[in-house]
Amino acid sequence: MFKKILIANRGEIACRVIKTARQMGIKTVAVYSDADADARHVKLADEAFRLGPPAPRESYLKADLILEIAQRTGAEAIHPGYGFLSENETFAEACAAAGVVFIGPPASAIAAMGSKSAAKTLMEKADVPLVPGYHGDNQDAAFLQAEADRMGYPVLIKASAGGGGKGMKIVEKSEDFAGQLASAKREATASFGDDMVLVEKYLTKPRHIEIQVFGDTHGEAVYLFERDCSVQRRHQKVLEEAPAPGLSPALRAQIGEAAVRAAKAVGYVGAGTVEFIFDTLSDAFYFMEMNTRLQVEHPVTEMITGLDLVEWQLRVASGEPLPRRQDELRIQGHAFEARVYAEDPARDFLPQIGRLAHMRQPQESAHVRVDTGVTSGDEISPWYDPMIAKLIVWDENRDRALDRLSSALAEYEVVGLDTNLDFLGQLASHPAFRAAELDTGFIARHRDTLIPPPATISNETLALAALAELALLEGKSEAARQRAKDADSPWWQVDGWRLNQDNRHALHFRHGEAEHAVMAHYRDTGYLLEIGEAQIAAHGTLTEGQLHATLDGYRLSASVVRDGNTLTLVRNGHNIALTPFNPLLAGLAAVEAGGGLTAPMPGTVVAVHVKAGDQVEKGTPLVILEAMKMEHTILAPQAGRVAEVFFQKGEQVKEGAALLEIASD
Predict the structure, then answer these.
(1) Which of 10, 16, 293, 339 is catalytic?
(2) Which of 103, 370, 596, 630 has its CA 20 to 30 A from that of 149?
(3) Peptide bond into 56 cis (omega under 30)
(4) Residues 332-353: pLDDT tens digits?
(5) Whether 315 is catalytic
(6) 660 and 648 Cβ atoms separated by less than 8 Å
(7) Angle at Cα 397 formed by Cα 394 and Cα 399, nearest 5°?
């Protein structure tokens, strides 16, 4: 077994590998970009080395430097995690040439499966079912459109070298094909350095089922059952479960054996995932691709098998045979993985960046696990995937595991930027999801119930906000009195902020566009709060961010986070952000000029479709931004004339930057 390994990755997967390595007595070497200098994986590793600036091409994709660090530190092997260099055949070859073990498949297997087109040719020979489509080398736009027209719409354009939903476009009709093809090729080039695509018939109600496979250097391969990854947004997985509900033992074995044939066809070694698209209308399954690495969702497989897949990777890479034979593998219970992202579901899951002002994770146990690479105070940067953590739960059956998931999500607290926690809670409790009515269109079909409009703020919440704000003001007053311990100072004897009028205090909060007033009257037992026509007897204590309150005899609690001018209450997994304000100063707020279109997030302008003077209709594509390796098209919110364009193709923009201005007709 290796004595020391280098982990050529970051975030939660780097932390995950370090955990297993430590349990096995293996030393670890971390690498980091400038954006990750204080990251959790850097602190956990035995050694850590800087790679360069934040951009992946200048840091985590610098294969030569990473290999040099491995040799310098005496690391015998490199674990690539997932993403970055994990499926880079050139890097795997360079490791082998340098005498450093690549903890993954041989370069030949990566090459064979790295091209979706070539992989499908191999799978056809291995008797693995394929989706009808064109997987060849002819990339002429007119030819590809003719193939799509021949198949019939809808069709799916996919980056041949891709993954993670990047370079993937659904085309509903022929006239949209050219534009979607160009967009897919741009994304493919930006993410993988290769604009080759394939075109397939798009199944209208499919499930996404994948099989975890493992091969060793002795020619053996097994499957560790399946995962259902059908719940997706932007073709990226949000929630996975194992095993896939509704599969008969015979069908499970049939898909698993097809996956093993796929692995053996390329001489596969290590952990891999064979992805299938499952037609819910016919129960037929078709090969999509093989990911030649460990997957983000591997923990659900670990939970139902009781195995450590990273340990398996290390054992197989060091030359040991597979720890179990196929007939020794069993499914025990059911598991879910929810990906907690910094994103805004109400804005089409737009990624968010910023500081994690507060984070409290559910208590871990035999039933609940959290894999994360961040802690409170860390930054979610624009350079990498905005995933905060993976929440994994297990129980004896699917219903009980879902209950565990809902409970754990309600315990999760993140303040400082938007997350999908509320969305995940809605998903876990949705009747159709609980009934396992699954397909890849689930989120789009149930969007209105999964992402409901913001609820009106309740008097109970306003009362809690008032108690929190009063406690914070009390703390500031006490601090001021402590600073004024001059015997001659009148502030040492009295609490000045309470001396307004007749022992009462007016508080004002904004919630969205609405404004709310709370009048707090001081009483010996606490406060009498006037909220509209309601009167609430209230008292509470705020200790280390925890508010324990009693409202009209009803006891309740909430986490309280004051970040800048925002007061956030966290209750049962829900964040309620309010802005305390002084109404006397409200008239001084700046009024945003109309007609301006701003960048929803930091990114690069990859296309500008209009120029000053152009007339546009509502919905006309204006500018395309690339951020976090995904394209975001800015559409005209109204008809009008383009007055001015402020950025050109290739320029970097900050969040909120004005991109162009439209004068209404």
Answers:
(1) 293
(2) 630
(3) no
(4) 999 999 999 999 999 889 999 8
(5) no
(6) no
(7) 95
